[in-house]
Design goal:
Strand order of the largest sheet: 1-2-3-4-5-6-7-8
Mean pLDDT: 95
Order of helices and strands: EHEEEEEEE
Shape: globular
Distance between the termini: 16 Å
Largest sheet: 8 strands, antiparallel, barrel
Helix content: under 10%
Number of strands: 8
CATH class: Mainly Beta
Low-confidence stretches: none
Length: about 110
């Protein structure tokens, strides 16, 4: 297994969410979440786009993040977590401030 396969760093294809179905996840483009090694990232699903500010654990196998972005032009913010559950799978949660919460699963892109 490569070093990248043992960390959460990289681009992940969102395959399921507890709050929305696959049609919504891929409404504008394939849903994804990205974690970059220097603590930045981004996510997009449905009509949501957001920049992430990430904090990794020492082994970079899980991450907590805050986000700001837009949902159909409305400003959004919130926080989330994600954990590596296999070389090619992560599970996590996204919580919008004053809004929806969802769990998600994603696979390495």
């Amino acid at each position: 297994m490569t070093k990248e396969a043992t960390t959460i760093i990289g681009k992940w294809r969102i395959t399921s969410m507890s709050a929305w179905n696959r049609d919504y996840i891929d409404l504008v483009e394939p849903g994804f979440i990205t974690f970059e090694k220097h603590g930045m990232g981004e996510m997009a699903f449905g009509v949501v786009t957001a920049a992430l500010d990430c904090a990794f654990n020492a082994g970079k196998t899980d991450v907590s993040f805050e986000f700001i972005g837009s949902d159909e032009g409305d400003e959004i913010s919130g926080e989330g977590t994600a954990e590596l559950t296999g070389a090619n799978t992560i599970k996590g949660e996204i919580e919008f401030h004053n809004g929806d919460d969802t769990t998600f699963e994603a696979h390495r892109w």
